[in-house]
Hints:
Layout: H1 2-12, H2 20-25, E1 33-37, E2 47-49, E3 52-53, E4 55-59, E5 63-69, E6 77-83, E7 86-92, E8 99-102, H3 114-131, E9 152-154, E10 159-162, E11 165-167, E12 173-175, E13 182-184, E14 189-197, E15 201-209, E16 212-219, E17 221-222, E18 229-230, E19 235-238, E20 250-256, E21 259-261
Parallel strand pairs: 8-10
Antiparallel strand pairs: 1-5, 2-3, 2-6, 4-5, 6-7, 9-12, 10-11, 12-20, 13-19, 14-15, 14-18, 15-16, 16-20, 17-19, 20-21
The structure holds zinc ion (ZN).
Amino acid sequence: MRLLATLLLCLALPAHAEGFLTRLLDKPVPGGVAVVPLGDGPVAPKARYQGKPVLVVKEDGKRWIAVVGIPLSIKPGSQTLEADGRQLSFTVGAKRYKEQHITLKNKEQVNPSPANLKRIERELAEQTSAYRLFSPGTPSNLLFDKPVNGPLSSRFGVRRFFNGEERNPHAGLDFAVPAGTPIKSPAAGKVILIGDYFFNGRTVFVDHGQGLISMFCHLSKVDVQLGQQLPRGGVVGRVGATGRATGPHMHWNVSLNDARVDPAIFIGAFEP
Ligand SMILES: [Zn+2]
């Protein structure tokens, strides 16, 4: 009888305006994601943020939503999204990120030589152009599978000090897993870049569609080829400690409209 009463109560409640994806993904902070509703027109609106194309999907088969990546460098306040010529505003809140102090024996990884600085610059340009790709396909799933099963060891956005000197904040999420663990693609995608970089070590970029891009680094082994299409769960490579790493772990970046955002959002593990 009580169950029936509860069911009736649920049915009597008005339909919730927010859908499943909005509840999961809308974390509008620097390094987070803003979900902006775009109406229920017959065709997908075209949206841009800071001059870059933005992911647009249909939520619950009803309304269009823009899923906007917010760069870590954005100050809290009002932001503007352009959708089919209209200016839509959304608000970015504040978030405090923790600090992490790391000691590296290899001083070259803290203050690289001029030759290595040249190499780093070249490698950065290559990776930046991969993040700027915008392919038209809609991602197979926005609720991602975890690429590996294991505890989180370092969160996204942590301010990092190497041997006491501040460097770029942590642009991804680390999992503590043993070397050799297979890394699985969290959604279907295409391999758009493979590299062996000074900081990131052996690295694979996977394009999930519409500017949603995963990057896995410090790999011991790469199991894919450039241009390869991966199914959801397809093995990208193996966990390792190549590049600037203090030990084997899996580092995963997620990028949306060329903004590196917190991967924890996409696996339901976001901490405000
Ligand atoms: Zn990391």
